[in-house]
Amino acid sequence: MPVEQYWAPASLAGALEHLRGGDVTILAGGTDLMPQSQAGRVTLRRGLLNIRRVPELHRIERDGAGVRVGTLCTVSELMRDPLVLDHFGILAEACDHFASDQLRNAATIGGNVCNASPAGDLLIPLLVLDGEAELASKPNGTVATRRR
Ligand SMILES: Cc1cc2nc3c(=O)[nH]c(=O)nc-3n(C[C@H](O)[C@H](O)[C@H](O)COP(=O)(O)OP(=O)(O)OC[C@H]3O[C@@H](n4cnc5c(N)ncnc54)[C@H](O)[C@@H]3O)c2cc1C
């Protein structure tokens, strides 16, 4: 079925609202999703949700003793971020093995995790660093999060 609707919300609450319907594909950098859909390996759902304009998902900041990395942070950004370099050298090193500059500028950490390829370069460092994922939803009008 072809994509019938496209959204590019500018807030997390707006993005989660579109997800509530269920029949939606999330688009981040598109470096996995676009080649996979063109090759027929993935079928895009009725709604395409571009999350790249959501600022809440694009931050790297301290979080207690740890560091919070937004799903939209690209491989290029991770490689040069001072917090990542100070605390997660192994993640920055893995980024340095990742494809080409062109890919690094578009590919996001969240896309790498969600694509779940066994060859994903960022997965092993995240496992070694005991990384946690924070998942967000908006079940009844307010944004709810949980960690895994
Ligand atoms: C030429 C080429 C070379 C590559 N080289 C490498 C490499 O060296 N190492 C490597 O690890 N990978 C490589 N990749 C794969 C790809 O670039 C990475 O997996 C990248 O991190 C995917 O991120 P993205 O933002 O482009 O994801 P997208 O393509 O936008 O999304 C990937 C999947 O994750 C889902 N998704 C994305 N963000 C979210 C979110 N926040 N919440 C829920 N679901 C989400 C999408 O719906 C989709 O199913 C390469 C790809 C290409 C085309």
How does the SSE layout of this entry go?
Blueprint: E1 5-7, H1 12-19, E2 24-27, H2 33-38, E3 47-50, E4 60-63, E5 66-69, H3 75-80, H4 82-87, H5 89-95, H6 101-106, H7 109-115, H8 123-128, E6 134-137, E7 144-147
Parallel strand pairs: 1-3, 2-3
Antiparallel strand pairs: 4-5, 6-7
Bound molecules: flavin-adenine dinucleotide.
- Poorly predicted spans: none
Total helical elements: 8
Question: What would you call the quaternary organization?
Answer: single chain
**Proportion of residues in extended strands:** 15-25%
Distance between the termini: 33 Å
**Taking strands numbered 1, 2, ... along the chain, how are they ordered across the largest sheet?**
1-3-2
Number of strands: 7
Summarize the amount of helix as a percent range: 25-40%
Shape: globular
- Average pLDDT works out at 95
- Order of SSEs: EHEHEEEHHHHHHEE
Radius of gyration: 16 Å
Major sheet size, sense and barrel closure = 3 strands, parallel
Chemical compounds bound to the protein: flavin-adenine dinucleotide
What does this structure look like?
By secondary structure, this protein is α/β, with parallel strands linked by helices. The chain is built from 8 helices and 7 strands; from the N terminus they run E-H-E-H-E-E-E-H-H-H-H-H-H-E-E. The protein has helices spanning 12-19, 33-38, 75-80, 82-87, 89-95, 101-106, 109-115, 123-128; strands spanning 5-7, 24-27, 47-50, 60-63, 66-69, 134-137, 144-147. The protein has a 3-stranded parallel beta sheet, covered by helices on one side. 19% of the residues are buried. Residues 25-33, 35, 51, 71, 98-99, 103, 106-108, 110-112, 114-115, 120-121 line the site of flavin-adenine dinucleotide. Flavin-adenine dinucleotide is lined by residues 25-33, 35, 51, 71, 98-99, 103, 106-108, 110-112, 114-115, 120-121.
